[in-house]
Amino acid sequence: MHTDSTTTDHPTYVAGSADVKAKAAHLAVRYLERGRFDVSSGSRPGLVHRVTMPVQGALPETWVCTCDWAQFGNAMCSHVRAAQLEAERICRQRGITPAWAPKPAPALPAPAHPELPAVDVCPTCNGLGHAAQHASWAEETCWTCDGSGEAPVTCEFCEGHGEAKPAVVRVRDWQGHEDRACADCLRAIEEDPAGWASAVVVGVFA
Questions:
Q1: pTM here?
Q2: Helix (H, G, I), strand (E, B), or coil: what is residue 68?
Q3: Neighbours of 13 (CB within 10 A)
Q4: CB-based contacts of 123: which residues, under 8 Å, 6+ apart?
Q5: Rounded distance, CA 194 to CA 64, Å?
Q6: Residues 157, 185: contact at Cβ < 8 Å?
Q7: CA-to-CA distance for 63 and 90, rounded, in angstroms?
Q8: Tell me: the pLDDT tens digits for 72-128?
Q9: Where are the alpha helices (DSSP H) in the chain?
Q10: Is the model more confident about 9 or about 189?
Q11: 71 exposed, middle or buried (CB, 10 Å; 0-12, 13-18, 19+)?
């Protein structure tokens, strides 16, 4: 048996057919050291090709083989693929992950509902934050907006019952209608088997 030698830096084609991969699984491989493998030829009995990692942990696409395919600047021949399988087997035995193994995708954060700011001016203090227009309470903090100067965001469901609970979310029904809802009404909406059953939260109020 004999081993040829050659190198290539810029692969032209990458062998990736099912036949090449199947052939790689049946080739005899012997690991030497320092990223070098001897791999038997699948078409020429007695011939052994040398597969070499250019650097430790390099991607298999950059490994060098002495076969004719690699001599013409191509990559991922059956010999390289067989060496890769052997390298991965050795890594499993040693309890390590190959440097070329795909990295797991990072977990995506749960999508947050966009904040919906309360931008309307408070009708009681006209945005001043205190009741200056009322002589009797000129120095008092506005009792409607609690000094913020903004109109409080109230639940559109409670308003119909003479209440004004703070709205916490904006919801949209299956017809595209949007309304503000407090926490209590949101629970009722979610439990309602009627039209609001498919309502979705489209924003939260700060």
A1: 0.46
A2: helix
A3: 12
A4: 144, 151
A5: 67
A6: yes
A7: 17
A8: 888 999 999 999 999 999 999 999 888 888 887 787 776 565 555 545 676 667 777
A9: 18-24, 68-71, 78-94, 183-191
A10: 189
A11: middle
Please answer whether residues 103 and 110 qualify as being in contact, where contact means their C-beta atoms are separated by less than 8 angstroms: no
Other beta carbons within 10 angstroms of residue 131's beta carbon come to 19
What the block records as the tokens of 94 is 């040693």
Pairing between strand 200-204 and 178-181? unpaired
> Do 203 and 178 meet the contact criterion of CB atoms below 8 Å apart?
no
Task: List Cβ neighbours of 118 (8 Å cut-off, separation of 6 or more).
Answer: 150, 151, 152, 153, 205, 206
**Cβ atoms 57, 99 nearer than 8 A:** yes
For residue 192, the Cα-to-chain-centroid distance in whole angstroms is 34
Sorted by sequence, the CB contacts under 8 Å of residue 108 that are 6+ apart come out as none
- Can you read off the two tokens belonging to residue 64? 């060098």
Percentage of residues in the chain having pLDDT higher than 90 = 24
Question: Residue 16: what pLDDT?
Answer: 78
The amino acid sitting at 46 is G
In contact, 189 and 201? CB cutoff 8 Å: no
Token couple for 128: 């001043």
